[in-house]
Amino acid sequence: MTLAEWCVLGALLLYLLTIGSIKWIRFRGFDNSRPRDPAFYEDAIAQRALGAHQNGIETFPFFAFAVLLAEFRDSPQRLIDELAVLFLIVRIAYVLTYLGNRPTLRSILWSIGFALNLGIFLMPMLKRYLPV
């Protein structure tokens, strides 16, 4: 597996860990028979963790598809790997700013992550201009 493909796995684990950690920390208040119970998410940190988790679910398919498309279209693997690692780092910082209630920085990080993802996605179209 390539480094970028490991980053796809990392992005998946990140959004699972985001909500899983809150459920683990507050396990006595979490009822697994009612996992979407709004009462569990009344706490501000739980709400932000849920928001970060949902955003991870929304972001994941585009990232996974972009990586696979770039690899299948023979784009420079080193560049795909570098952008994927940067994307994952930005996503980790995004989750931390979401949990830390820093909305402006969170929006900036989301935009950077989207730009990185778009760069990976468009790489096959631009590969003749990229270094090998």
Describe this structure in words.
It comes from Bradyrhizobium cytisi. It is found in: Membrane. InterPro entries: MAPEG-like_dom_sf, Membr-assoc_MAPEG. The chain crosses the membrane at residues 6-25, 83-101, 107-126. One of its GO terms (cellular component) is membrane. The model has no long low-confidence stretch (mean pLDDT 92). The protein has 132 residues and is an all-alpha fold. Helix content is 75%, strand content 0%. The protein contains 4 helices and no strands. The protein has a single domain (3-25, 41-127), classed as Four Helix Bundle (Hemerythrin (Met), subunit A) (Up-down Bundle), CATH 1.20.120.
CATH class type: Mainly Alpha
Number of helices: 4
What is the rounded distance between the termini?
20 Å
How many strands, what sense, and barrel or not for the largest sheet?
none
The number of strands is 0
**Rg over alpha carbons:** 17 Å
**Which outline best applies?**
elongated
Main location: membrane
Organism: Bradyrhizobium cytisi
Transmembrane segments: 6-25, 83-101, 107-126
Protein name: MAPEG family protein
